[in-house]
Amino acid sequence: MKFIHKLMLASKTKMILSTIGVLALVLFSGYVVYETAKAEVVIVNNGEEQVVHTHKNTVEELFAEAGITVGAHDAISHEIDAPVENGMKIDYKTAMQVTVVIDGTAESFYTTEDTIQGFYKEQNLSFSEHDDVSHQQTEAIEDGLEINVTKAYDVAINDGGEKKVVSATGGTVEELLANHDIVLNDADKIKPGLDKTVKKDMEISIVRVTTETEEVAEAVAYSTEEKQDSSLPKGEEKIITQGQEGQIVKEYKITKENGKEVNRELVDEEVKKESVNHVVAVGTKEATQKSDSNLVTLSDKSSNEPSGGKTLTVTASAFTASCSGCSGVTSTGINLQANPNMKVIAVDPNVIPLGSKVWVEGYGVAVAGDTGGAIKGNRIDVHVPNKSAAYSWGVRTVQVKIIN
After folding, report:
1. Which of 10, 78, 142, 327 sits a CA distance of 20 to 30 A from 29?
2. Would you say the C-alpha torsion 245, 247, 252, 256 has a positive or negative sign?
């Protein structure tokens, strides 16, 4: 009996083990089938590939399973509600925040571009070559990047009269000139000063100052020297030495501003040739009285009124042979230039005959030896040796007596 009991017990144990084996096999087979039914998906998360096996139905569920939260600005290659398919590849990129500050005004952007150049293109941003930008376009984008931009503005420069407009983004006047290869010389003037801050619509004026030397040859006038000569008749002149101009060379320092002379300073002078005085001999020999008894000189002191003869009352003025345009020779041929002391009067021949010897009140004995266009009727002109004497005589009323 015991043997039969043991035999039955062994048979029951085998059945139980067999059942467990079958169940395990079923479970394993189901697991294999379950795992085999998973979709294989490649997720490229910010450049890193991850192979995922999933039973999720949509991309959103898949990303939730993978612990990926998709932000509003993130880039994803598939729609979030797209169905998951075996073998699909999903690209995902987290958006980065970039702040652009232009002339102090900030604006934030989100981008999935790799470089600043791509970001500019994406956001339709552009800056000129003259703008001051804090980062190069080839630099990589990093989350939280801040790009500072100072926009360029126009500055007018008048460089020695040459006007041009350049771009600036601030700094000093000195820095602006250096940026545009404008070099100042020590004497040049600039306004505003080099240390002034460059501002929009500023006008910069540069006065170019240059100096140069110039030599100028100038003539030196000669002086006239008179020497009395008793061998020459009085009034005659004779050149002893012909005058010659000298020459002096003067050196000037000339200062110019923008090409125009503003100052001239004499720094040196040298006499190249001395002048030679013009020497003239002036005759002092008194002229001898001609044989003609009617000719008299101023040395004749006879002033007393002679007796006899015809007496007239006339208006008397004075003349001199040295007047401009005068020939010095009277109408009767008397050379008053050669005989400056000769007493001669100009008359109207219809009143006083030419050649007559006359006595003139205040003048003395004279000869009526000349005529004149203004001498008409009872009017005469008395000859005196110079203009000073003529002015002293003036115009007066005198008595004239015709002697012969």
Report:
1. 10
2. positive
User: pLDDT (tens digit, 9 = 90+) per residue, 43-64?
Assistant: 999 989 999 999 999 999 999 9
pLDDT at res. 16 = 57
Q: Model-level pTM?
A: 0.48
Burial 47-71 (b: 16+ CB within 10 A, else e): eeeeebebebeebbbbbeebebebe
What Rg value do the Cα atoms of the chain yield, rounded?
Answer: 64
Distance CA 113, CA 161 (A): 50
Residues in CB range of 7: below 8 A, 6 or more apart: none
What residue has token string 């042979």? Answer: 321
The size of the chain, in residues, is 404
Run of H or E residues at 391? helix 387-393
Q: Could you give the domains of the chain? A: 39-93 (3.10.20), 96-150 (3.10.20.90), 153-207 (3.10.20), 211-282 (2.20.230.10), 289-402 (2.40.40.10)
- 192 upstream amide cis, omega within 30 of 0: yes
Out of 207-221, 258-272, 309-323, least confident range: 309-323
Q: Cα separation of 106 and 98, whole Å?
A: 10
What type of residue is 187?
Answer: A
Per-residue model confidence as pLDDT tens digits over 70-111:
999 999 999 999 999 999 999 999 999 999 999 999 999 999
Contact (CB, 8 A) for 321 and 383: yes
